[in-house]
UniProtKB/TrEMBL annotation:
Coiled coil: none annotated. Gene3D superfamilies: Flavocytochrome C3, Chain A (1.10.1130.10), Hydroxylamine Oxidoreductase, Chain A, domain 2 (1.20.850.10). Keywords: Signal. It comes from the Bacteria. The keyword Signal applies. PANTHER family: C-TYPE POLYHEME CYTOCHROME OMCC, DISSIMILATORY SULFITE REDUCTASE SIRA. It holds the Pfam family Multi-haem_cyto. This is Cytochrome C. Residues 1-27 form the signal peptide. InterPro entries: Multihaem_cyt_sf, Multiheme_Cytochr_ET.
Length: 418
């Protein structure tokens, strides 16, 4: 054997031994690729550029029942349980966090079942992101509509079929879901000093890119897949030591259907608990806040961190003050019969019906809650004062003026009606 060939043989043998020593066998190309190179070539290309192609084949995730174009229905769709076989720690972290409750959140909305099939089941609306948290291929009936469990949550960040960790570590992996109307975190972060610094350094000095935080730095410290925050999506916490603020929050909880007009808990409180969209004990809020404080203090002084969190919290209070007044104005119209309520509807405007409302004033209230209040409070924590002001706080002031004027006009017209 010539020297060059002998060295190549030794190197190949050593690689095989190292792979076996690591507990993995070197995967060979799957016979599935012979067909899929013709019908879905990019899928094959993506898989083979990923690290998993070195130790797995198609059957590792899709099973062995599907062998030809005649039995496509037998191909298994991966679920979080599939990923858990190799990534137990990450899967358990994910399942304990808020992302795993994505479907719970969208199903909790009282009008979800009224949406077009394409919007939810077809994933062209809320269903496009809120498939997270699905764990199996089964179907189940919910409020008279069929919701499919698509499974494979990991692909939302580790895009199939490469399932690249490098891609998932970039902030754009979060952008698909966290942008736009009610959760413009991408726009807030990317326009903040944090985001601008990270993106500029990634382009011109990759070795310095980590001198500013990206989404994963704060929300997934150390690679923790749990993903949670102190305020939650609705920016609601209980109890509240500030009596004035608690008054605003009680009104908001009535608008969310969690409290009845007398302030007593309703059945919807169980839904809020199941979706973990609010912090319902002081310990729960403080625990999540402490996690973020530790991350911030890696770059900033304790005083700086404390002051910024305090002022961001106060932005939530100022937003709540305006929203509470607006809710009470519309609730007064319900009470006095100026707005005719749907049969069985609560005595307060139901903010979670979203845009399925019958009057202009209810539509303005919905946008005030779901768009402008969200931006007012979220931008404070994402360090974007422009978004907090012009897309949030100022818009809420405009909403409140419009709601006051519309209410006065509606009352005059109602009084003049024979």
């Amino acid at each position: 054997m010539k020297k060059g060939r002998r060295m190549l043989w030794i190197a190949s043998a050593a690689a095989a031994v190292l792979a076996l020593a690591a507990g993995t066998a070197m995967a060979r190309p799957s016979p599935c690729e012979d067909c899929h190179k013709k019908i879905s070539p990019k899928m094959v290309e993506d898989f083979n550029r990923g690290k998993m192609s070195r130790v797995l084949t198609c059957k590792s995730c899709h099973g062995t029942a599907h062998t030809s174009e005649k039995d496509v229905a037998k191909a298994q769709l991966p679920t979080i349980a599939t990923c858990k076989r190799c990534h137990k720690k990450q899967a358990e972290q994910y399942l304990s966090g808020k992302h795993a409750l994505g479907l719970v959140a969208v199903q909790a909305m009282p009008r979800t079942h009224m949406q077009p099939k394409a919007f939810v089941e077809g994933q062209k609306g809320c269903g496009g992101c809120h498939t997270l948290g699905l764990t199996g291929p089964e179907q189940r009936e919910t409020e008279g509509r069929r919701y499919y469990k698509y499974g494979m949550d990991c692909q939302n960040c580790h895009t199939r079929h490469a399932f690249s960790k490098a891609e998932a570590l970039e902030p754009e992996a979060c952008q698909t879901c966290h942008m736009g109307f009610d959760h413009a975190q991408w726009e807030m972060w990317s326009g903040s000093k944090h985001g601008v610094t990270y993106l500029m350094n990634r382009a011109i000095a990759p070795d310095r890119r980590d001198r500013a935080p990206k989404c994963q730095t704060c929300h997934m410290p150390g690679g923790d897949h749990r993903v949670f925050s102190a305020w939650g999506f609705l920016a609601v916490r209980l109890p509240e030591d500030d009596a004035e603020w608690m008054g605003y929050r009680a009104t908001i909880l009535k608008g969310l259907g969690v409290l009845d007009p007398e302030g007593n808990p309703t059945a919807r409180l169980d839904i809020v608990k199941a979706g973990k969209v609010a912090r319902l004990t002081k310990a729960a809020f403080d625990e999540e806040r402490a996690r973020f404080v530790k991350v911030c203090e890696k770059c900033h002084s304790p005083n700086f961190v404390r002051e910024n969190f305090k002022n961001a919290d106060l932005m939530v209070k100022e937003a709540d003050k305006m929203l509470a007044e607006a809710i009470e104005i519309v609730a007064g119209l319900y009470k006095d019969g100026v707005i005719e309520r749907r049969e069985g509807a609560p005595a307060y405007p139901d903010l979670l019906t979203f845009y399925d409302v019958n009057t202009k004033i209810e539509e303005v209230l919905y946008e005030m809650f779901m768009d402008h209040r969200m931006k007012a409070f979220q931008a404070g924590f994402h360090m974007n004062p422009d978004y907090a002001t012009w897309y949030g706080f100022a818009k809420m002031k405009k909403d409140l003026v419009e709601i006051r004027e519309l209410a006065a006009k509606m009352r005059r017209e109602h009084a003049a009606t024979p």
